[in-house]
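Project standup — Tuesday

K.O.: blocked on the structure for the chain from last sprint. Re-posting the sequence here as requested.
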Amino acid sequence: MAYSFNRVILVGRLTRDPEIRMTTTGEKIANFDIAVDRGYGDNKTVDFIKIVAFNKRAEFAENYLKKGLLILIEGSLRINKWKDNNGNNRERAEIWANTLQFMESKKQQNENVEIVEPEEPFGNIDEKVDISNDEFPQFFPLEDNNNL
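H.V.: unblocked you, prediction finished:
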């Protein structure tokens, strides 16, 4: 009797925020990549693994997963096959997630996630700026505002 078993367990960091899409039937799909270390010392390298999550797991990914978080993913390996625009056969391996689990405490997550503060679009708004008419090109003649 032949048996088949397809189960993958990975621990890695998100390389970007999840991308969320909706199917025509309204189901959510989350796509993201994780970086997984492989090897030790001088032989250490990183693999970037594509992850796909559906429905409730996609909602979880949308609401809680962010770039840099360390997570555990349990799922199954799927090989997508297609033909590109030039007629070439293409393949891509991805993991369809069954379980998504945080591997760090909230405190550790906050230490590892880069928080970028938005910049003030107009610079320092308290700084006084001289905007005399001499600084602007004269495309139209200036009229006396008192006649308006």
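K.O.: great, moving the ticket to review. The first strand starts at residue 8 and ends at 14. The mean pLDDT is 82.
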